[in-house]
Structure to design on (347 residues):
């Protein structure tokens, strides 16, 4: 039995100041579930620019700038490569299931990798991580240039890969050079869109007088936003929970922060939500919707298109990785991604 390790590549040139990122999310699923067996979502600056799944068996652009910049040859090559990745992930899941003694049920094997570039400081970063059933399985420590597994089931694989000096050299070159070059190219492709700045719309939402109050910021670009709460003009950090950054259909983003507060406390104090974006601040202190009104929270959140389902599904298994910086590489092809999967003999 073999565990196939995919080493992925991506790239872009920076059109607007700040940090730019290229990320790929691979999701393989095993078991009885109404979802494609394998999906790939590619993101530039947190916005989706490409997609592939095992049902449609075709890599497709998800932005106008990508459609206009790369022709049919590019997408044909990417499609063939992604079909190979699908087969590799089927093998990955099977090996992981054996390692964890899982013979039934729904299981997932996920991979996230990519790079970042700051066009003001020149600083770069790369990351590559694999997960099984939403938990860490293997990741690449770029500073030490070695693979690490937090679970014993991954030890045989990291030992083999860490002894492969040629593999580690390719990894280092990809994340320090090739990935950055592709990132810069993609950012250059989309510079007119990626340079835009759109301020958020901010609302306070509540389902009923006894439920939590949600601060909803939506329609903003780029994705960096900070949501905080004030109580009687003082910073308030208790009983609050910040939600995930989510994409809107038009390429902008939305984010929420939920404040758990009792009706009497809300009535007897002055609460406000403060949203900071691109150096500008917006404040909301009056609840916009509640029971009996015609615009429930679900409609606003439901403004996300099908792209949200694709991205959220791919990213969901990686919440455990959000405090880390790591991923896993491969050999680059002319389209910035790996041309073939590497098979490793089971240790």
């Amino acid at each position: 039995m073999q565990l196939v390790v995919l080493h992925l590549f991506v790239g872009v040139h920076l059109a607007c100041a700040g940090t730019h990122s290229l990320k790929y999310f691979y999701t393989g699923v095993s078991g009885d579930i109404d979802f494609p067996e394998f999906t790939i979502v590619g993101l530039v600056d947190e916005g989706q620019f490409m997609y592939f799944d095992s049902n449609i068996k075709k890599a497709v652009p998800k932005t106008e700038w990508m459609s206009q910049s790369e022709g049919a040859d590019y997408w044909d090559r990417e499609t063939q490569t992604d079909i190979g990745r699908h087969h590799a992930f089927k093998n990955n899941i099977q090996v992981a299931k054996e390692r964890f003694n899982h013979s039934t049920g729904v299981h997932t094997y996920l991979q996230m990798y990519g790079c970042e570039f700051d066009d003001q400081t020149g600083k770069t970063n790369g990351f590559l991580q694999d997960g099984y059933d939403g938990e860490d399985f293997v990741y690449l420590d770029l500073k030490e240039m070695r693979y690490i597994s937090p679970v014993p089931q991954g030890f045989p694989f990291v030992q083999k890969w860490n002894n492969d000096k040629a593999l580690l050299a390719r990894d280092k070159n990809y994340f320090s050079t090739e990935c950055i070059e592709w990132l810069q190219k993609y950012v250059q492709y989309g510079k007119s869109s990626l340079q835009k700045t759109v301020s958020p719309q901010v609302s306070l939402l509540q389902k009923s007088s006894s439920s939590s109050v949600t601060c909803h910021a939506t329609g903003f670009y780029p994705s960096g936003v900070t949501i905080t709460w004030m109580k009687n003009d003082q910073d308030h950090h208790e009983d609050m929970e910040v939600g995930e950054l989510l994409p809107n259909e038009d390429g902008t983003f939305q984010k929420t922060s939920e404040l758990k507060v009792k009706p009497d406390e809300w009535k007897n104090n002055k609460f406000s939500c403060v949203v900071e974006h691109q150096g500008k601040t917006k404040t909301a202190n009056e609840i916009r919707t509640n029971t009996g009104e015609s615009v429930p929270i679900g409609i606003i959140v439901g403004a996300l298109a099908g792209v949200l389902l694709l991205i959220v599904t791919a990213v969901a298994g990686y919440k455990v990785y959000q405090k880390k910086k790591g991923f896993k590489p491969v050999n680059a092809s002319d389209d910035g991604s790996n041309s073939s999967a590497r098979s490793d003999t089971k240790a």
Notes: The first strand starts at residue 2 and ends at 5. Helices lie at 64-69, 72-99, 155-162, 165-189, 191-194, 263-268, 297-301, 306-316.
